[in-house]
Amino acid sequence: MRILHTADWHLGARLIERDRLADHAVFCDWLIETLHEEKIDALLLSGDVFDSANPPQDAVGLYFDFLKRLADLKTVKAVITGGNHDSASHLNAPRELLKRFEVHVFGQAGENVVDLGGAVVAAVPFLRERDLRQATSGEAMTEVQAQVRAAIQGHYASQLNTCRAAAGKRPVIAMGHLTVLGATTCDSERDIHIGNLGAVGADVFAGFDYTALGHLHRPQKVAGMETVRYSGSPIALSFSEAGDKKSVVILDTQGEGMDIRIAPIPTSRLLTRVNVSRASLTEDLASVPEASWAEVTVKLDAPEADLDRQVREAAGGRFEVLKVLADLPPSQMQSWQHTGPALNELQPREVFRELIKEKQIAGEELCAVFDELLAIREQKLTA
């Protein structure tokens, strides 16, 4: 059986107010062609189908258009799990209809075992804290952390037993949407549990022949294990991913073995990070690829109020400047000058912590309360 592993599409995502729908549409076209040309039997999509619990309608339209084209192939089964950005109820709404087309959708935790014929899959979506434990007042953070991690391990152990009972000698595959310790993160990922409580070791997946992970956006194997992998996002979702080579993972099951290879995804929109000198601004920007989106950091001796305009004029329309940063010597840093990320680049937890810092409040307990309130809100949004 030949299986393709992908994750973290984040349909509906934006980058500094730029819409990414066209880039996602190009990826969907490529994926349909690849499924056909590679004679793929099954597609695994490991969470974060959408960028938000209430995605824009054009993103939902692209998703259903892809599924219609997938059904038209008549040769590819699919297993789709929910991520921390997805609404479980939104994903699950059409699941009974989609099942008739061999598309199996799991927005929330349960006994989510799928027999694909050539392999058996534990289709584990993002496990929210309410899926794992019953919270009580007065718990220490270390106690909560131990309970969450033990519950995640127990959930995968249960799924493994169910899969093995059904599979016989056929391969068993786990899907997951979580942080695995030792993996490399980037700027575009949201904390999946408060304080990274849900981060687990790769040993949680011992016994599975392959683990198809989602959540982290850089393609990578975990802990040096070829069979525990993040496929990564199909397009770069932040400038921190500008140098990443996006890909999907293709698996060939061979009896009890597994052949694994990487299939690169063509780049539809090039993101570029460049550091330039104010003295040679135009010359330095000449190296930026045409038609790319750029983040430009300019080395300055002193602040310049119209730096944005100067950089955009120097770009000359060859590429689009989405963000301009100033690299100033410490002696020139002004107390009024904002040197951190823009507000729309911060997660709510980060905004609250910046406020606490600005007001010079001893906010450790306040931050913990805010985190709890935020978790309750996100659970309601994604229920």
Automatic annotation (TrEMBL):
Keywords: DNA recombination, DNA replication, Endonuclease, Exonuclease, Hydrolase, Nuclease. CDD domains: MPP_Mre11_N (cd00840). InterPro entries: Calcineurin-like_PHP (IPR004843), DNA_Repair-Maintenance_Comp (IPR050535), Metallo-depent_PP-like (IPR029052), Mre11_N (IPR041796), SbcD (IPR004593), SbcD_C (IPR026843). Pfam families: Metallophos, SbcD_C. Heterodimer of SbcC and SbcD. Residues 273-359 form the Nuclease SbcCD subunit D C-terminal domain. Residues 1-219 form the Calcineurin-like phosphoesterase domain. One of its GO terms (biological process) is DNA recombination. It comes from Prosthecobacter vanneervenii. This is Nuclease SbcCD subunit D. One of its GO terms (molecular function) is 3'-5' exonuclease activity. SbcCD cleaves DNA hairpin structures. These structures can inhibit DNA replication and are intermediates in certain DNA recombination reactions. The complex acts as a 3'->5' double strand exonuclease that can open hairpins. It also has a 5' single-strand endonuclease activity. Belongs to the SbcD family.
